[in-house]
Design goal:
heterodimer; A: 298 residues; Rossmann fold; 8-stranded mixed β-sheet; 30% helix; 16% strand; globular; B: alpha/beta; Pyruvate-ferredoxin Oxidoreductase, domain 3; 7-stranded mixed β-sheet; 18 helices; 24 strands
């Protein structure tokens, strides 16, 4: 996202705070994600009027309202599509898309896959709590097999999606996983994701303390292992990243799985944008061009 | 009666029906003639049966008409289906090597071309088509040079040998007709005008470019795909970002995203895709980001008849998305209007920050019409409404824009709140699909507030009054006290107009009330017009009388009768004329004319 990054002076955490306080349950993992995003923006000193935070619907999706940036609270599952249109119309803006696992991998699964293969230049943060929270606790696309919820009281019989493998397969050019309980590490991943030119996917374990009693802080803490601590991990190796993405159990990797910067971004590949963002182009078709359009028909 | 001449060219898909059609169209338009073309076809790439009707004349030709003057069947199937449509004075040119004529009506000239005797068919597989074009043009009294010119352009890319060969074949057909067939009594007229020939889809795409559309995206769906094709082919010259999206849900949301950033954004689809867009339309209305969405109707429900026309989506448009919100809906009256309407509806959508819906149909989308080039105005008025942009919107101001003073949804008398686009310092805000307060903060999750909810609904809905004032009411063509007043909407404009002319010639005075703006409808103005009518009939291309039901729901008006058609094909003038006479005679109140052409 290098093109959208512009420096201002002396932005502080207070400048990033939105007009309302989060309505998340006490202890919700999303607090940690919000703090890390705000911290990353402060550390990067990106003027907040140049940032647009776009969400879908769900617990995580009031996120734009808790930020002091331009924001869009859109429809369930559609944030990435809205964000793609916005980024293509003004690629000078830094675009953050926030959502949950139901929003992104369930109802929005189609847009998720296609946004990645298009390499739209934005950071997509999924606050993955493996449950539907706002609708009071139903199975989500990342709920483990056997998990008992209100919608599957006898246990989930459907295999969960693996967001990291899916993102790698779909062509995301930056794929990472964070954990809400690892603030510093998460902040670093967010900064890298914003800097990355292209689609940055960041899946964040963000425990739901109210409805998910399986995947708790206590469950995650001993399991998460930072890829950055593994000197053998090479984030430019796609096959190795794919293998790492399959690890799940006693040890669950977090950190940057994969990054490549040799793929053009969607806006970078489109010659129509050579003269700058669409919002600054003259809306009028030049008279000679208009005449040529009509001549074709005569 | 207008002087017109209609050619029908039929064959299987892939047999080359389009090329002779294009050649005739070019020759007619270069003679300064108007034309209207309609292609009846099926959802098949090769095979099936298509019939292209091209009707031409010195005055405007608003519909396919009732009569085929010259039939060119490219296969036996076409001969078998359509020879019986020809009446005295008409002719049929066919390849006598492969096609046997059936029995023709008296006065119909059968014109067999012994194709293998005239040309080497092993060298030129579409020789029969080119021969028939040559023969037909001679019979219409058009000099060979006109054809030679067009063939030269058509085959130029394939080299001089190909040009010469095709001109030779065409010449053989031309000369054979001179020696063996009787020419039509009236040679085709010629005028000094020059017209552009275009489809409704091309017209809407160009209208978008003229309106300043900078973002267009779509998922392919017949019969709207032509808009995408024009946009994609001309995007770089026109400076328009064009994307093909994974589905129509993505389309509407991407369009809204681009519009929210501050550009004019448009998309087109057909009924099925439009159904997928409806939740997004609600978002456009709720966050007050204007977009223009085109629905090119085809025969439904469900996948329906993808290549056939219908006016069956009116209630889908009226009811699209849940909840009450301001919207505008307009139905273009003809292909020229497809162009003109787009800048107009963008101005309304931008001013009132609401979705603008264009209700087109296959008849216009894929039909072709001659339009005067001056009617394709690329400098129409552009009114972006109360939009706060900044020439230096992403500038490096050091000031930290604070939340506070700016209220995106400020409550105003007009219901319109000045709209700032992202990137402008000092106007930071969040737009929300949840109900919200003036500053955009949600009033749905943490707390609700009936007073604020009502105030915000009132604010949005107040825009309706302004929209009504900004859109003109419909007007009546013809006398108020005519024997019959025909009421139609959108694409039936041309065929109803010609039906009225025919009725007037037959001594039945007829007037026409054609509706272009469906929302706002201007019900009182319509009631005022119709209060002077002696007999009212609503004509529409659907089963249930969707417009009749809508008009009644808005005004309590009940017409004297209905003419409806839902077989997938458009009205022909005689369908309406005959139905009007039956209804005036008191025989029936609902006519559903049978389409005689089997396509």
């Amino acid at each position: 996202m290098a093109t959208g990054v512009q420096r201002a002076s002396q932005l502080t955490m207070a400048d990033m705070k939105g007009r309302v306080d989060p309505d998340w349950c006490p202890g919700c993992g999303d607090f940690g994600v919000l703090a890390a995003v705000q911290k990353a923006l402060v550390e990067m000193q990106i003027p907040n009027h140049n940032v647009v935070t776009i969400s879908g619907i769900g617990c995580s999706s009031n996120f734009p309202g808790y930020m002091n940036t331009y924001g869009m609270h859109t429809l369930h599952g559609r944030a990435l599509a809205v964000a793609t249109g916005l980024k293509l119309a003004n690629h000078d803006l830094t675009v953050l898309v926030t959502g949950g696992d139901g929003d992104g991998f369930g109802i929005g699964g189609n847009h998720f896959v296609h946004s990645m293969r298009r390499n739209v230049d934005l950071l997509y943060i999924v606050m993955d709590n493996q449950i539907y929270g706002l609708t009071t606790g139903q199975t989500s696309p990342t709920s483990r097999v056997g998990m008992k919820t209100k919608s599957m009281p006898f246990g989930n019989i459907e295999a969960p999606v693996n967001p990291i493998s899916l993102a790698l397969a779909a062509g995301a050019t930056f794929v990472a996983r964070g954990y809400s309980g690892e603030q510093k590490h998460l902040t670093e991943l967010i900064k890298q994701g914003i800097e990355h030119p292209g689609f940055s996917f960041l899946d964040v374990f963000s425990p739901c303390v109210t409805y998910n009693h399986d995947n708790t802080y206590q469950w995650f803490r001993p399991r998460v292992k930072k890829l950055e601590d593994d000197s053998a991990h090479d984030p430019t190796n796609w096959m190795a990243a794919m293998e790492k993405s399959l690890l799940w159990g006693e040890e669950i990797p977090i950190g940057k799985f994969f990054e490549r910067t040799d793929v053009p971004t969607l806006h970078g590949a489109e010659p129509v944008l050579n003269d700058g963002p669409l919002v600054r182009l003259d809306p009028r078709v030049p008279p000679a061009v208009a005449r040529s359009f009509i001549e074709e028909l005569i | 009666m207008k002087q017109t001449f209609a050619i029908g060219i039929g064959g299987a898909a892939g047999q080359g029906v389009a090329t002779p059609g294009d050649i005739f169209a070019k020759i007619f338009s270069r003679r300064g003639l108007h034309l209207n073309a309609y292609n009846a076809y099926q959802s098949i790439i090769r095979g099936g049966h298509t019939l292209l009707t091209i009707r031409t004349g010195p005055e405007s030709v608003t519909n396919m008409g009732d009569r085929i003057d010259l039939l060119i069947p490219l296969n036996q199937d076409t001969m078998d289906r359509h020879l019986k449509l020809l009446t005295a004075g008409a002719a049929c040119i066919y390849n006598s090597d492969t096609i046997k004529p059936g029995s023709a009506a008296g006065g119909v000239q059968l014109c067999p071309l012994p194709v293998s005797e005239l040309v080497d068919i092993t060298r030129n597989k579409v020789a029969q088509n080119t021969l028939a074009i040559g023969a037909g043009l001679h019979m219409m009294g058009i000099g060979f040079q006109a054809l030679e010119e067009v063939l030269r352009e058509q085959f130029k890319k394939k080299g001089e040998a190909m040009v010469a060969e095709n001109i030779g074949v065409a010449r053989a057909g031309y000369d054979y007709a001179a020696a063996h067939f009787t020419a039509f009594p009236n040679p085709l007229a010629k005028t000094e005008h020059r017209y552009a020939i275009l489809s409704g889809n091309v017209a809407m795409a160009m209208g978008g470019a003229a309106a300043g559309v900078k973002f267009y995206c779509a998922y392919p769906m017949s019969p709207s795909t032509g808009v995408l094709h024009w946009m994609a082919a001309h995007a770089r010259k026109a400076g328009i970002m064009v994307r093909q999206v994974e589905d129509e849900i993505g389309v509407i949301n991407m369009t809204i995203g681009a519009a929210h950033a501050g550009v004019r954004a448009m998309c087109a689809t057909s009924g099925g895709g439009f159904a997928l867009m409806s939740e997004g339309l609600g978002m456009s209305a709720m966050i007050e980001t204007p977009v223009v969405v085109i629905n090119c109707q085809r025969a439904g429900p469900s996948t329906g008849v993808p290549t056939k026309t219908e006016q069956g989506d009116l209630w889908q448009m009226l009811g699209a998305a849940f909840g009450d919100y301001p919207r505008v809906i307009a139905a273009p009256l003809d292909i020229g209007d497809c162009f003109k309407l787009i800048p107009e509806i963008f101005n309304i959508a931008d001013r009132f920050q609401c979705p603008g819906l264009v209700l087109c149909d296959l008849l216009l989308s894929e039909g072709r019409l001659s339009v005067h080039p001056k009617d394709l105005d690329f400098s129409p008025p552009i009114d972006r409404g109360e939009l706060i942009t900044s020439s230096n919107g992403n500038g490096a101001q050091s000031a930290v824009a604070t939340n506070g003073a700016y209220k995106r949804y400020k409550i105003t008398d007009s219901g319109i709140s000045p709209r700032a686009v992202p990137g402008v310092p000092g106007y930071i805000h969040t737009v929300a699909t949840d109900e919200h307060m003036e500053d955009g903060i949600l009033i749905s999750d943490e707390f609700t507030n009936p007073i604020k909810r009502r105030a915000m609904m009132d604010k949005r809905m107040r825009k309706v009054t302004g929209i009504e004032a900004a859109v003109p009411p419909p007007t009546l063509s013809g006398p108020r006290d005519a024997d019959v007043t025909l009421i139609g909407w959108g694409s039936t404009s041309g065929v109803i107009e010609e039906s009225c002319e025919i009725l007037n010639e037959q001594g039945i005075s007829a007037s026409q009330l054609q509706i272009r703006w469906l929302v706002p409808l201007h019900g009182e103005a319509i009631l005022d017009i119709l209060s002077g009518s002696r007999h009212t009939i609503i004509v529409e291309n659907n089963y249930s009388g969707q417009f009749a039901r809508y008009l009644r729901s808005e005004t309590s008006f009940v017409p004297d009768g209905h003419i409806r058609k839902y077989d997938g094909e458009p009205f022909m003038p005689h369908h309406i004329v005959e139905a009007v006479k039956e209804q005036l005679a008191g025989k029936i109140k609902l006519s559903v004319p049978m389409h005689e052409i089997m396509v």
